[in-house]
């Protein structure tokens, strides 16, 4: 996965080179989404740094301005759009030669007006994963990778339902569009887990879905999985992420989510948002607390715990990339 440098990497590299940290330029950036998933990219005009490069539209925060206020103002001034529905997403920090930039990304789902380049810039609707414009500003490449993540992350519960019944439900879930899931059967020995994982992979591959394995990097590779999902305990001891796997992590605190961002993981899962029978002693966060813990982090975060697909819009409005579902991801009909 191509990614920008994290806050820690920016500051560490400047210190190693004997350069003092610079003031951070705060920017609001808009990921304007059509119903088909296409996003709007704008080309930087002549006279600006990186002229000719493509980026997500937006601009600098003015003194006393919040990122959301800057987003609304910049889209009005730059493109003639009035935002009617936008949600905070995640932050990206990038140390360019001309500026150390903090980009606060929002997903914009609804607006009025048609985009017009008031500064004379070109713009184009693009499909994430199949861009036709180049070059792209390097701070935006991680965002395009995140846009390819589905909004629902399924978590297996075969131990609860029985393997045969669960595999039947999994087949139906993939047929109905589930495209991202993790095998999490923590108590199973390898002799039981391996054939189940192979059966799940066969079903997922038939529908273009991506599977992660909860726990061990080497076992994920051995089973031919695209990625690994770390526990919070594994995240706490990690010094770097494997480069050959997609990597996610379970998080319970602000520090957990911050570390997942510093390690440039692909996404995190934060909860429980609501009470759940699998963790009866865990105090639910609620969506307001979830939003506070996930705010300004450097990777997409899924909301977890007692949720259904009906909670997706509320989760997104509180800063989640999407929802992680256990039983609700695998309905019987």
Walkthrough of the structure:
The protein is an alpha/beta fold. The chain folds into 2 domains: 7-143, Nucleoside Triphosphate Pyrophosphohydrolase; 152-329, Alpha-Beta Barrel (TIM Barrel). It has 11 helices and 15 strands. The protein has helices spanning 7-16, 67-79, 141-147, 158-161, 163-175, 190-205, 217-222, 232-237, 254-262, 286-294, 312-317, and strands spanning 24-32, 39-43, 54-55, 58-60, 82-95, 100-112, 123-126, 152-155, 180-183, 210-214, 227-230, 246-251, 267-270, 301-304, 322-325. An 8-stranded parallel beta barrel has the order 8-9-10-11-12-13-14-15. Strand 12, helix 9 (254-262) and strand 13 (267-270) form a beta-alpha-beta unit. Helix 5 runs parallel beside helix 6 (190-205). The model is unreliable at 1-7 (pLDDT under 50).
How do you describe this structure in short?
The protein has about 325 residues and is an alpha/beta fold. It contains 11 helices and 15 strands. The chain has an 8-stranded parallel barrel. Strands 4-1-6-5 form a 4-stranded mixed β-sheet, covered by helices on one side.
Radius of gyration over C-alpha positions, nearest whole angstrom: 21 Å
Which second-level CATH architecture of the largest domain applies? Answer: Alpha-Beta Barrel
What would CATH call the homologous superfamily of the largest domain?
A: Aldolase class I
Helical amount: 25-40%
Number of helices: 11
**The CATH topology of the largest domain, please?**
TIM Barrel
How is the main sheet built? 8 strands, parallel, barrel
Strand order of the largest sheet: 8-9-10-11-12-13-14-15
């Amino acid at each position: 996965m191509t990614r920008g440098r994290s806050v820690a990497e920016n500051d560490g590299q400047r210190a190693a080179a004997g350069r003092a940290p610079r003031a951070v330029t705060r920017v609001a950036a808009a990921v304007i989404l059509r119903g088909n998933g296409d996003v709007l990219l704008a080309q930087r005009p002549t006279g600006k740094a990186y002229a000719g490069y493509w980026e997500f539209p937006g601009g600098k925060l003015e003194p006393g301005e919040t990122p959301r206020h800057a987003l609304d103002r910049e889209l009005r001034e730059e493109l003639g759009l009035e935002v009617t529905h936008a949600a905070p997403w995640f932050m990206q920090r990038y140390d360019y030669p001309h500026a150390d930039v903090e980009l606060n990304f929002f997903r914009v789902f609804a607006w009025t007006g048609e985009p017009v380049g008031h500064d004379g810039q070109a713009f184009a609707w693009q499909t994430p994963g199949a861009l036709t414009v180049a070059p792209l500003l390097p701070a935006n490449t991680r965002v395009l990778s995140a846009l390819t993540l589905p909004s629902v992350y399924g978590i297996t519960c075969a131990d609860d339902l029985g393997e045969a019944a669960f595999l039947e439900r999994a087949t139906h879930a993939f047929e109905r569009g589930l495209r991202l899931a993790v095998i999490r059967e923590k108590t199973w020995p390898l002799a039981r887990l391996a054939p189940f994982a192979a059966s799940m992979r066969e079903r997922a591959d038939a529908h273009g879905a991506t599977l992660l394995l909860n726990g061990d990097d080497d076992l994920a590779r051995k089973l031919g999985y695209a990625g690994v999902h770390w526990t919070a305990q594994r995240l706490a001891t990690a010094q770097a992420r494997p480069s050959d796997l997609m990597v996610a992590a379970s998080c319970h605190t602000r520090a957990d989510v911050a570390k997942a961002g510093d390690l440039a993981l692909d996404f995190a899962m934060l909860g429980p948002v609501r009470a759940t029978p699998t963790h009866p002693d865990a105090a639910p966060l609620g969506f307001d607390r979830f939003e506070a813990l996930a705010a300004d982090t450097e990777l997409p975060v899924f909301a977890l715990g007692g949720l259904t697909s009906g909670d997706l819009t509320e989760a997104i409005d509180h800063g989640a990339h999407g929802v992680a579902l256990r039983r609700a991801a695998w309905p019987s009909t």
